[in-house]
From TrEMBL:
It comes from the Eukaryota. Its main location: nucleus. Residues 524-603 are annotated as: SAW. GO terms for cellular component: nucleus. Belongs to the GRAS family. InterPro entries: TF_GRAS. The gene is ZZD3. It holds the Pfam family GRAS. Keywords: Nucleus, Transcription, Transcription regulation. This is DELLA RGL1-like protein. It comes from Boehmeria nivea. PANTHER family: OSJNBA0084A10.13 PROTEIN-RELATED.
Length: 606
């Protein structure tokens, strides 16, 4: 099955913890080192060269002590959640999923990886293992998991060495600007070095960088230093560093400056929460630059979809690519059904169903007799869902597709999970379920998530298509969560920079209204208030297995259609940095190699 040409062009309307180390250490080969020094195998001396960028005597080592103590609880439900909920979830094995408990690597391993990706010549010796073990305030589980990365663990103390980046002017016309992720990696590598009292074979001078890029590296290092102090609850030092960051970042600058801006907001809010000043709302300079959300919300939320919504939809290649792939996957798995019933766990504005309608309308061999869409909502979202239903009905009428639209309240499903009556499924209907970021929103309410899955299992749909954020943002460890979120939104802002014009008001609204709010929730909030808890597909696999679900392969056609849509969108911008990779049977969509979204298909085993 293929989509109409207009759809292919994108015109249809509306790990684990080891990954963090890898992000920090995979410096781009373009910024390779120029010389190496020897590392003593006993760990007594490490020669690191010149590095670091900030001049603050309070920056003593502390972050990576906390960093190495972090247990990246890559499970759906963080240990920070109530004990009763944890007990219920652990009954079906989510908390003890082996791949969900990933320990931090030793700092020696971090440095070794930096050397590898920095193209250090072969004569550099490998870091040796510290023979004499020491006692550290880790839990037994932490020590057991850390053992996977080798014994030998050394706590570093002392002041950070702080110097400026050596800036070498280059011809701007001949220079390829580094991506946001590259800037983050370089800054992270330098930040690791700044924890050491001496030097290491990773050159601190990046001669291939422009003046703006070197300033961006320094800005990110300031942000990381701020996060360190926040994690250690050294609020005064963190606030001083944030003041420096806020003088250099801007919500209208380049992608690095913009993403740092919103992370500064988040760190500032976390400080206010921890010091009891959260109600003050005063964030210094940032308060004057923040977009007036009260003016933005009416522009975004008005129905039917306006130019602003269409700009979001058309400007984000992943938005269209994943919807095309999902629609085609559903159509392929329900064929040759003439009556199709789709349950949507998070319908939003309903734009994604235009893709399915066009796919169904193009089927000449078995024309659709009825398309029934049931949206699951809450009392707060009922009105907007009903408005989306009206808009979709008009679109279906134009496509000559008979459409029935219904809304089912989530509370009704929770109260009677084994009953099919709420969904009004007829015997001659072929059932499919679509979840576009609908499951992750229920992670903070594990009882509701489990009940919903039992209700779906009772319906036994032909296929369930799931799209989720491919990032580990549910760790109970603050710094782990901070880094995962930083790299995720760094790549996202890089994508927005390419796909939407710099002066596009819609981009500013999207970054502030959606990205900024999400960053603040992930970074600043804890406990029940932290409602954004994204996890990677490997965690969803373990979760779905508990309900007797089997992952099924996506067709090559659906994958190629998704690629084609993304390529056509980005060609208009003169850039094609989308990446499509397979993780088993799951499609991972990313930007310049950074995973951002996952799309997978499932069915229930009898």
């Amino acid at each position: 099955m293929s989509f109409p040409f207009e759809l292919q062009k994108g015109i249809f309307s509306l790990d684990d913890h080891d990954n963090i180390r890898e992000k920090f250490t995979r410096a781009d080969q373009e910024f390779g080192t120029t010389n190496t020094n020897q590392i003593q195998p006993n760990g007594a001396e490490i020669d690191c060269g010149e590095f670091a960028t900030i001049d603050d005597s309070s920056l003593n080592y502390g972050l990576f002590q906390d960093y190495n103590q972090c247990l990246a609880e890559e499970s759906l439900f963080s240990k920070s959640q109530p004990r009763q909920q944890q007990q219920q979830i652990s009954d079906y094995g989510l908390l003890d999923y082996p791949q969900c408990n990933v320990a931090s690597p030793s700092l020696e391993a971090c440095l070794e990886e930096i050397a590898k990706f920095g193209q250090v010549p072969n004569e550099t010796k490998h870091v040796g293992v510290v023979k004499k073990s020491k006692a550290y305030p880790f839990s037994l589980a932490s020590l057991e998991l850390l053992n996977n990365y080798g014994t030998g663990f050394r706590r570093l103390t002392g002041e950070r060495i702080v110097q400026q980046v050596d800036r070498v002017g280059i011809n701007a016309k001949d220079h390829r600007r580094s991506s946001t992720e590259e800037i983050l990696r370089i800054a992270g590598a330098r930040f690791i070095q700044s924890a050491l009292p001496t030097s290491h074979p990773f050159e601190g001078s990046f001669s291939g960088m422009s003046n703006e890029e070197s300033k961006d590296v320094e800005l990110v290092e300031l942000l990381l230093a701020s996060a360190e102090k926040v994690g250690l609850q050294q609020h005064e030092s963190a606030a001083r560093l944030l003041n420096l960051c806020e003088n250099l970042c801007s919500n209208t600058g380049n992608p690095v400056q913009r993403v740092v801006y919103y992370f500064c907001e988040a760190l500032r809010e976390r400080i206010d929460r921890e010091t009891g000043r959260f109600a003050s709302k005063d964030s210094g300079k940032l308060a004057h630059q923040t977009l007036d959300i009260n003016k933005a919300i009416p522009m975004i939320m008005q129905d039917p979809p306006d130019a602003s919504k269409l700009a979001f939809h058309r400007g984000l290649p992943f938005s269209q690519a994943e919807k095309v792939a999902a629609a085609l996957t559903i159509a392929e798995n329900v064929a040759p059904a003439k009556k199709l019933h789709v349950i949507d766990l998070r319908i939003g504005f309903g734009i994604h169903w235009t893709a399915l309608m066009q796919a169904l309308a193009s089927q000449n061999s078995f024309p659709i007799e009825l398309l029934k869409i049931t949206a699951i909502g809450t009392a707060a979202s009922k009105h907007s869902i009903e408005e989306a239903g009206k808009w979709m009905s008009n679109f279906a009428y134009a496509m000559k597709i008979p459409l029935s639209f219904n809304v089912v309240m989530l509370q009704d499903i929770i109260s009677s999970p084994e009953s099919e009556g709420a969904f009004e499924v007829e015997g001659d209907e072929t059932l499919a379920v679509y979840s576009s970021y609908g499951l992750s929103r229920l992670i903070p309410q594990p009882n509701q998530l489990e009940t919903l899955m039992r209700a779906i299992r009772a319906l036994n749909p032909r296929v369930m298509v799931v799209t989720e954020v491919e990032s580990s943002q549910n760790s109970s460890a603050f710094f782990t969560r901070f880094i995962e979120t930083l790299f995720y939104y760094g790549a996202s802002f890089d994508c927005l920079e390419v796909s939407m014009k710099p002066d596009d008001t819609n981009r500013v609204v999207f970054e502030s209204l959606y990205c900024g709010a999400a960053i603040r929730n992930i970074v600043a909030a804890e406990g029940e208030e932290r409602v954004i808890r994204n996890v990677k597909v490997q965690v969803w696999r373990a979760f779905f297995a508990r309900f007797g679900m089997e992952e099924i392969a996506l067709s090559q056609s659906s994958i190629e259609q998704a690629k084609l849509v993304a390529i056509n969108i980005l060609q208009q911008c003169g850039n094609n940095s989308c990446t499509f990779e397979m993780d088993g049977k799951c499609l991972i969509m990313g930007w310049k190699g950074t995973p951002l979204h996952s799309l997978s298909a499932w069915r229930f085993l009898n």
